[in-house]
Write a structure and sequence with these properties.
- This protein has helices at about 5-20, 25-30, 35-45, 50-60, 65-70; strands spanning about 75-80, 80-90, 95-105, 110-115, 120-130, 130-135, 140, 145-150, 155-160, 165-170.
- The radius of gyration is 16 Å and the shape is globular.
- Helix 2 (about 25-30) packs across helix 3 (about 35-45) and helix 2 (about 25-30) packs across helix 4 (about 50-60).
- The two termini are about 30 Å apart.
- The protein contains 5 helices and 10 strands.
- Helix content is about 30%, strand content about 35%.
């Protein structure tokens, strides 16, 4: 799939889920805290959304990130300080979803992720480097071989002074 085809596919997914939830373009933009024009350009495939923007949109829609991106292993998304690559998406019989990502946190900056849906749990297992992550104001530190876990129904952050590589799992209960 080309970059342009992928951009259109993401826009179509967002528009379809937004319509299914009964949100107007203005309402979703307001809830996601992004410009209405930006959201319109993303939905029409004219703009390539960042990982930060996709997370901002996924929260109010009540869907996992991969519902917007694509569930194929190898699909990637990036923000200023974080790069994620999908390793696997598991849909459970009860309607829950578990997403597994290979995560690279770039040195120096802080990646603030918006709140996910109620009951969404994140686990980050540090493979290399050191990472501070968790609920905003309650971040914890982990080094190689250590794992952090939190409920991500509030803003949460990822920060690494020198860079870190980790495996991230996000478990979303049935909507």
């Amino acid at each position: 799939m080309t970059v342009e085809q992928r951009r259109h596919a993401v826009g179509n997914r967002i528009a379809a889920i937004r319509a299914d939830r009964g949100f107007s373009l203005s309402e979703l933009a307001r809830r996601a805290r992004i410009g209405k024009g930006s959201l319109s350009e993303i939905e029409s495939g004219q703009r390539n959304p960042t990982l930060d923007t996709l997370y901002a949109v996924a929260g109010p829609l009540g869907v996992p990130l991969t519902a917007l991106l694509d569930e194929d292993a190898g699909t990637e998304g990036s923000g200023e300080f974080l790069h994620a690559q999908i390793l696997h998406v598991e849909h459970h019989p009860d309607g829950a979803t578990t997403e597994v990502f290979w995560l690279r946190v770039r040195p120096g900056g802080v990646r603030t992720s918006p709140a996910h849906g109620a009951g969404v749990t994140e686990n980050v297992h540090v493979v290399a480097g050191e990472l501070d992550a968790g609920r905003l104001g309650a971040e914890r530190h982990a080094g190689p071989g250590e794992t952090l876990q939190w409920i991500s129904d509030v803003e949460h952050t990822y920060h690494s002074a020198a860079g870190a590589t980790a495996v991230l799992t996000i478990h979303s209960p049935r909507p």
